[in-house]
């Protein structure tokens, strides 16, 4: 009996080590989210940070397991190093550089991760490798300009956004994206003419559904609007990805690639969005509806007191970052898990973990993230459709050109 117990104990220990070793990517996805939340990192700096963490981890893993081409790392392959230790060390160094005030928290998480990896030369070599790779990624991003000071051009022509204060984000005129050349590479065509039937359709839809006094918006739609704030957009996709990866039992290399692609494409959505927003400077529904008598369209009736149910962001309407992100993230995940029905997965409110949204397909989650921008009164339907396609083009480009099979 004692031999059986010893054998079972050994099996349990082996499985726990294997599980932990195979899970460092998803573990440090969660760790990065926690660290950045504690550091109050938001918006584009948040998306940039998540991409840096995961690209560093992926390049570290592929320096040991060369299944996919690396993004920036150039050091010779190190097959004897621990890929898990390399990934953990890379993530730690990136996070300390981006959130230095959280160093004690990061080091605590780091120590816990390393304790689950067997000691030996492979572990030591992995740590050294991970730190080297992180330094390469830090140098690659040092001049990316995605944290440049804000600038704006106030424009008062009917049909364009009329700012009441400087926008909260830079224009990224020369920003360096992840895996593409210039910020305008995925810039869409212009929004509809104000005199068009498409514009009138979208104007009247959002006027009816998106205002604070709407009687057409359902309670379920209102709850969805409350959930899908900027704080939940990116973290929700990471959470969904972790659950889907666990369900499919992806290995370390595929987890590393998926999360690198997911976070890179989300970071790219900010860059491409701000480029297009400040190129077109299209007005928000609240401005449009209060000035419906100035658009030259007989099908748009003015409502001088209309207010969006969601707070209107202080930057131009077209395109929609939320919808670019939904299309981009969905495309990456669908490339792994397909477009059909999946076991239910959830997205949790970062402010209140008791609040969750449940989905049974990736497309269902992306669609809800898009439609809340109508129900919240901040984006026109055509904008959402165009933005979704922008996001899918960004992801298609990355999937074809970044982290491709090494052989």
Give a written overview of the molecule:
A hairpin with a 7-residue loop joins strand 1 and strand 2 (356-359). The chain contains 14 helices and two strands; from the N terminus they run ααααααααααααββαα. 58% of the residues lie in helices and 2% in strands. Mean pLDDT is 90; it is low at 1-22, 149-157 and 161-171.
What tags apply to this protein structure?
single chain, 407 residues, 2 domains, 2 strands, disordered N terminus
Q: What global shape is seen? A: elongated
CATH topology of the largest domain: Vanadium-containing Chloroperoxidase, domain 2
Topology as a string of helices (H) and strands (E): HHHHHHHHHHHHEEHH
Q: Figure out the total of helices.
A: 14
**SSE-based structural type:** mainly alpha
Spatial order of strands in the largest sheet: 1-2
Pick out the low-confidence regions: 1-22, 149-157, 161-171
Q: First CA to last CA: what distance? A: 49 Å
- The radius of gyration is 23 Å
Largest sheet: 2 strands, antiparallel
Task: Summarize this entry quickly.
This protein is an all-alpha fold and 407 residues long. The chain folds into 2 domains: 2-141, Up-down Bundle (Vanadium-containing Chloroperoxidase, domain 1); 183-401, Vanadium-containing Chloroperoxidase, domain 2 (Orthogonal Bundle), CATH 1.10.606.
């Amino acid at each position: 009996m004692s031999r059986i117990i010893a054998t079972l104990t050994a099996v349990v220990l082996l499985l726990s080590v294997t599980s932990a070793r195979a899970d460092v990517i998803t573990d440090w996805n969660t760790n990065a989210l926690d660290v950045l939340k504690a550091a109050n990192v938001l918006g584009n700096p948040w998306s940039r940070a998540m991409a840096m963490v995961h690209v560093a981890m992926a390049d570290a893993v592929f320096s040991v397991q060369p299944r996919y081409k690396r993004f920036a790392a150039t050091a010779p392959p190190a097959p004897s190093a621990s890929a898990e230790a390399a990934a953990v060390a890379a993530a730690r160094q990136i996070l300390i550089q981006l959130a230095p005030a959280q160093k004690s928290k990061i080091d605590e998480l780091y120590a816990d991760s390393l304790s689950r990896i067997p000691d030996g030369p492979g572990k030591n070599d992995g740590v050294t490798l991970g730190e080297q790779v992180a330094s390469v990624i830090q140098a690659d991003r040092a001049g990316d300009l995605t944290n440049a000071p804000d600038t704006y051009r106030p424009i008062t022509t009917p049909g364009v956004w009329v700012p009441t204060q400087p926008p909260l984000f830079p224009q990224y005129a020369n920003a360096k994206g992840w895996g593409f050349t210039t910020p305008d590479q995925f810039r869409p065509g212009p929004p509809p003419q104000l005199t068009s039937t498409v514009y009138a359709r979208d104007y009247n839809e959002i006027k009816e559904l998106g205002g604070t006094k709407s009687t057409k918006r359902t309670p379920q739609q209102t709850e969805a609007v409350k959930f899908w704030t900027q704080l939940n957009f990116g973290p929700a996709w990471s959470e969904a990805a972790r659950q889907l990866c666990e369900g499919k039992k992806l290995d370390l290399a595929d987890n590393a690639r998926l999360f690198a692609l997911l976070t890179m494409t989300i970071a790219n959505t900010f860059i491409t969005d701000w480029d297009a927003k400040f190129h077109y400077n299209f007005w928000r529904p609240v401005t449009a509806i209060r000035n419906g008598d100035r658009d030259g369209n007989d099908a748009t009736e003015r409502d001088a007191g209309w207010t969006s149910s969601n707070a209107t962001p202080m930057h131009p309407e077209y395109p929609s970052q939320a919808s670019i992100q939904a299309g981009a993230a969905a495309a990456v995940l669908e490339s792994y898990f397909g477009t059909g029905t999946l076991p239910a997965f959830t997205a949790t409110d970062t402010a209140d973990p008791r609040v969750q949204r449940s989905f049974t397909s990736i497309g269902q989650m992306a669609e809800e993230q898009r439609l809340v921008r109508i129900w919240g009164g901040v984006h026109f339907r055509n904008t959402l459709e165009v933005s979704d396609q922008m996001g899918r083009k960004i992801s298609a480009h990355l999937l074809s050109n970044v982290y491709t099979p090494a052989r």
